[in-house]
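lol ok so funny story. i was supposed to be doing the assay writeup but got distracted and ended up predicting the structure for this chain instead. priorities right. anyway since i did it might as well share w the group, maybe its usefull for someone
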Amino acid sequence: MTLRSQYNTAIAKTSPFSLSLEITSARGANLYGIDEKKYLDFISGIGVSNLGHHHPDIIQAIHDQADLFLHTMVYGEHIQAPQVLLADLLTSQLPPSLNQVYFHSSGTEAIEAAMKLARKLSGRPTLISCTNAYHGSTYGAMSLMSDETKTNPYGPLVPEIEHIVFNDISSLDVLNDQVAAVILEVVQAEAGIYVPTAEFLKALRSSCDTYGILLIIDEIQSAMGRTGSLFAFSSYDLVPDVLVLGKSFGGGLPLSAVIADYEKMRSLAEDPPLTHMTTFGGHPLSCAAGLASLKILLASDIIHQSRLKAERFIEKINHPLIKELRPTGGLWMAIDFQDAELVQKLIPLAQEGGLLIDWFLFNDSSIRIAPPLTITDMELDEAADILINALDMLAVNHSVPFV
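and the output, tada:
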């Protein structure tokens, strides 16, 4: 029995159309299949591998920690150097009010914690998110979704969830003194990469301050240099009350965090205690990898170079089939086409040429561009050529006309 056949029978799927690539190794911006074929990775595990695959410093940090100890106790009970050092370095890069960290294992788990924190602190029932936002797929996080085609099969979900429209100041009229928190992606990710206006963020911050509403910023996908800054919110005149991190934060291992001030965070430990716990949150291996990753970003010019690389890639992506390109300032953008059918044909065609791309959860007419920040100029150029060649083939054979 082949590994592929075992995969088809033993592994539960998330969709009927998985990429189904059998990966044997990964280095830098490249994945390698069983036939040693190289694939340029422009997905990065959905924004996880910001520093590429098999970064030597991260691998060494994992090895060093594995030689000491793995899991010793549920989160928060033992003093462990990887957790403490990572929390200290992380908070040194944040506004003073974001000074205490609660580690979890995944972004959606951290969102759940932030939701619980908001309701406990405020005593208010209502939580607000944006239409087309994605904060995770566990019960509470899924309840924040506006897409009822995805949520209805799992209902009834967590009650008292309302929605505003991203970048629509008029939709903020629903904010009032019954709202516990607004949960916002600074960059809407699975909607297809939409950046905020400064006016919207200013109005939102003002409304939250007026009504005593916590502003929870979800940077699960946008942090760690993905938008050309260490944190996307730092590009705006905005300080969140609560910050949520995940994905690339762990340097390739499962790690997430909720960050707020001490007074807010201590409520998770008191009145009553032991009501928010995680067994594997802040795992020593994950924190060691996350610490190594953050040190690399801070000690190098990788983030600055990623902005230049993004500009280089954008200059090379010019094709009549492209409807719109939505940048973020870093190596994270969306390329929009006129329909989903074209995207469904483009993805396997690009994969055949050695380039891995995918679409978004709430936008199937756009493709995600998210290579490792460490990708070389030569690899960027190669990827651009593969993508343009695939589009040329579609322009000849696809029924969709030029736009």
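Residues 326 and 350 are 20 Å apart (CA to CA). The chain has a mean pLDDT of 96.
back to the writeup now i swear
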